[in-house]
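Example record used in the benchmark description.
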Amino acid sequence: MNYALFTYGTLEIPEVMQLITGKQFKTESAVLQDHARYKLKSGAYPAVVFEAGKNISGTVYFDIDELDIHKLDRYEDFCYQRQKVDVILDNGDKQDVMCFVVPRDKKDLLSKVDWNKKQFIDEELDSFLRSITVTK
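Model output (structure tokens):
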């Protein structure tokens, strides 16, 4: 089975996704409705949580196989849970995808600070890439 995965933070950066999976994927921009993206209190990376009326932009990766999903599951922190969500693709189509979200019972792990992708890439990406442990 192959998956589509909506990404909105570090996994949205192609170098991170390629380092974890060893692959490049077809992508498309998308919007996840009724969710908000905030930095975790304990890190420089974000998480999303259900929040009615909020929308976030991100990237969908297509044709991710079971092995890649397993690698991504191990990469993600304990506070994330992979869930099925609907996103709106750039072409207006609705797409059923997987997404790593913070369950409501762990919402207290989030700050109220929005995550800035450009700032992360400029200031932290190099050290972040060096810190990733890739498992086979």
